[in-house]
Amino acid sequence: MATQILGDSSLRVRVYRPEDFRQVEAVFYEGMAYGLGSPADHSARAFYRHPFSGFVYLSGAISAWLISRTKHISPALCTAGILSAAGGVLAYVLWIPRQSRNMMVEYCEQCFREDLNDITKHYRLEPTDDGDYQPTSSSCFWVAEQKSDSGEGYKIVGCIGLDTPDGSSVGEVRRLSVLHSQRGKGIGSLLLRIVTAFAKQTKLTSLRLTTSTFQPDAMRLYTRLGWKNTETVKFKGNMMSSQFYLATMNYFEL
C-alpha cells in the first residue's frame, strides 16, 4: 500500500502481520482502558456525576459538619474526625477511575481471548511471498503506522478489523483504536475509509459495528462518515456501568 501523507506526518496503512501483536495490544489497551478520552476515562467522569456519588459527597460533608458541631470533644479529636470524613470521600473519588479502568481492562482481556487471540487466523490472513500478509476472504485486519521522529522505521498508532462470517454479506467493523497522542489527525477516518473500500471490493452489502456512549468521539466520527445509529440499549452490568449504553451503527452506502 502506498504511503499516505496527513498534515506533516507520513502515515501508511497495511494488513496486519503476526509480529505486530504487541504493538496492537498496546494501542488497543490504551484506546480502551488507559488513554485520555478512552471509555474508561469517560466512564469515570460519568460516575462522578452519578446519584450514588452525590450521596457519598453529601454524607462526607454532613459528617464533617456534625463533628465540627459536636461539643465536649477535644480539638484534636475534632480535627481527626473531620479529616477522616474528608479522607473517606477522597478515597471514593480515587476509587472511581480505578474501577472504571478495571472494567475496561476486563473487556480488553475478553477481546484478546476472542478474535485478537490469533488475528491472522480469525481474520483469515495468509502470508505472501514477500513476507507480508493478505486477506483471503472479506475479513481483514489493518494497522496504521506513522514514521518515527528519527525518520527511521514506523510505529503502529492505530488498528481496525473487518470480521465477516463465511457466507455473510454483512461485515462487522471491530477493534478500531488510535493512540490518544495521534487522535485528531484523521487516522480513524482513514482506517474506516479503507474498510468501506475493501467491503465494496469484496461485494459486501452493508457494515455494522457496536460502540458505546462512553466513546463520543468515535460516535461523532461514524456519524460524520455516514453511519446510522440503528439501536441503543442500556448495558446490563454493575453500578459502575449503570450509565453505559451500547449503540449499534450501520453503514448502508456500499
TrEMBL record:
Keyword Transmembrane helix: yes
SUPFAM superfamilies, per the entry: Acyl-CoA N-acyltransferases (Nat)
Location of the N-acetyltransferase domain: 90-251
Transmembrane segments: 47-67, 73-95
Molecular function per GO: N-acetyltransferase activity
Alphabetized InterPro entries for the sequence: Acyl_CoA_acyltransferase (IPR016181), GNAT_dom (IPR000182), NAT_camello-type (IPR050769)
Matching CDD domains: NAT_SF
Entry keyword set: Membrane, Transferase, Transmembrane, Transmembrane helix
Claim: Transmembrane helix is one of the keywords in the record: yes
Protein name listed in UniProt: N-acetyltransferase domain-containing protein
Organism expressing this protein natively: Marasmius oreades (fairy-ring Marasmius)
